[in-house]
Amino acid sequence: MRHWLGALAFGLGAFGLASIAKADCVIGEPGATRSVAFGPDRRTVQIHVPRGFDPARPAPLVFVLHGSGGTGAAILRDSKLAETADRHGFIVAAPDAGIPVDRGFVWNVPGVPTITGDVPGPDDADDVGFLVETVEELASQGCVDDSRVYATGLSGGGRMTSWLGCVAADRFAAIAPVVGLRAGNPRKGSPERPDAATCRPSRPMPVIAFAGDADTTNPIQGGGAPYWSYTMHAAEQRWAQLNGCATTRPTLWVSASVYEEGYADCRAGAEVVGRITRDGGHSWVADNEAMWAFFAARTRPQN
Question: Which residue range or ranges hold the Peptidase S9 prolyl oligopeptidase catalytic domain (predicted)?
Answer without folding.
Answer: 131-180
